[in-house]
Amino acid sequence: MKKIRIIFAALTGLLVLVTGCSDEFLTREPEGQFGQPSLQTADGVEGILLGAYAMIDGAGLDGTADWNVTVENWAFNIASDDALKGTDAGDQPEQSFIEAYDFQAFNGHITNRWRSLYKGIARTNDAIVSARAVEEIDDARREQIIAEARFLRGIFHMEARKMWKRPPYISDEVYDINDVNSTLVPNDREIWPDIEEDFKAAAAVLPETQSQVGRPTSWAAKAFLAKSLVYQGWNEDGSANIAKLEEAKPILENILNDGPFSLAEKFQDNFLVATRNNSESIFEIQYAVSSAADQASSRGMGLAHPYIDPWGCCGFYQVSQNLVNAYQTEDGLPLLDNFDDTDVPADINEEDYTSPVTTPLDPRIDHTVGRPGILYKGFKIYDTDFVRDLSYAGPFFSKKHVAEPEGFGIGGWGNLTANNYRYMRLDMIILWLAEVEVELGNLEPARLLVNRIRERAANPADFVPKATKPEDGGRNDFVIEEGVPAANYQISTYEDAWTDQDFARKAVRFETRLEFAMEGHRFWDLVRWGIAAETLNAYIASESEHRSYLSGRSFVEGKNEYFPIPSQAIDRSFKEGTATLTQDPAY
Questions:
Q1: 194-203 pLDDT tens trace
Q2: pLDDT (tens digit, 9 = 90+) per residue, 60-78?
Q3: Number of folded domains that form the chain
Q4: How far apart are CA 224 and CA 227, in angstroms?
């Protein structure tokens, strides 16, 4: 099997080295010391840094399941209107509580996400402190190690800040590997400024290009800095924080106009194994093809695959009817206000392998959703055998993260793949800039930015003819008969000038949902825009007509925007008889 050369290829051996360090936040007993001779070398420091990279996807978190901690955040995105837990009612009940907005401080998924992020933070601080301590490291490389570690530290803290309203910020200034109490700092302040400083410091030192794929560039650091500013661009009441948006705008424009990036020709190129690290990519989580490096493979998404062989596990992370309905169009444009008034059906004509659905649809639906009548990943026409329990979570399944079945499974398990996670892409930059322009009153530039995304989505190169049936050798998902699209795809650009800010805001946010659906962002988009309660309660009312187990559930405004700090973390934060961490008052 082809082996892809990636930065994490050596992790299997290196993790043995780095796990000797005390790197799990709030663990009362240190596991080792930097004083170990094997780590007092340049290679030892590089190993510590690679261990920090591993924690982006939760790899190396002992005693937990990878799907609790994966960077794709799928186990928490089921709290959005895009996704359902899926599988069946009895599997992973802790996810059912998340889906029902019953967030508890003892939920294992929430606890393990905290553990993984703060273990990653500990490793970045260990890398920074160690790089400064080892004299044999070249000064230029020392600065690069510190910059990469600060970039990663910014990511870990950003993910924590998305999850929790007041997580603590742990810096290298307080971190002492020989003192377990050094990380016991209070969570009594806003940490966004610290996150910004990490990305600014990384951007000032990192190069514009890297010789090893997977290491961040200065462009990646600037992109995540812009993301941190955009995430602060709305106040809790939904009003715009103009100062933060104005600060984000020149950074976004610099990346878009001066960076070496361009939109990939096809939307689907952002989700195929063969088109990883393409022209649109700013920062990707790299995965391996070789079974010898399966510690670096996409294990965290393993459960979120079709129930049918060759994937064979486990049916989690299904798609809501609400999201499917969002892809309906009229005159090629989305139905911003009434998309959920009618359902896109899920029927199939098994005799001629065609879908009878004639509803006009945005073609991105079939890059995002497995639905009856449409070829799934070049394997077979999708039918209800892809899902574990049709009566529980319905007929639709997620698709973007699932790799093609031929030749990409790892270690004999078809759902461990080398399909990278595109953590930061140019289309994100474009739509964040569109958001900023709307709030600053620049509606026409925002319209043109959105149209760039829609023009790519409508690219006819995505509609390659294929044979009538998949067993006859057909590969493309979007044509059933040669020259005949598989569905009634209709997508166009916004031609009329935007003159109403409310309409423009709604259009940009809707486009963001369509472009990034099922990629682990939707829940936090709703929260940062200040519209989570109204959107998700409307969703529950609608979706519960299809998924009865959602009946009676509700999203509590002022509470469910964030998760509770794990009780285990608070219990282990005692210093001199007093807990240094305090629970979110909403819990």
A1: 999 999 999 9
A2: 666 566 777 888 999 999 9
A3: 1
A4: 5
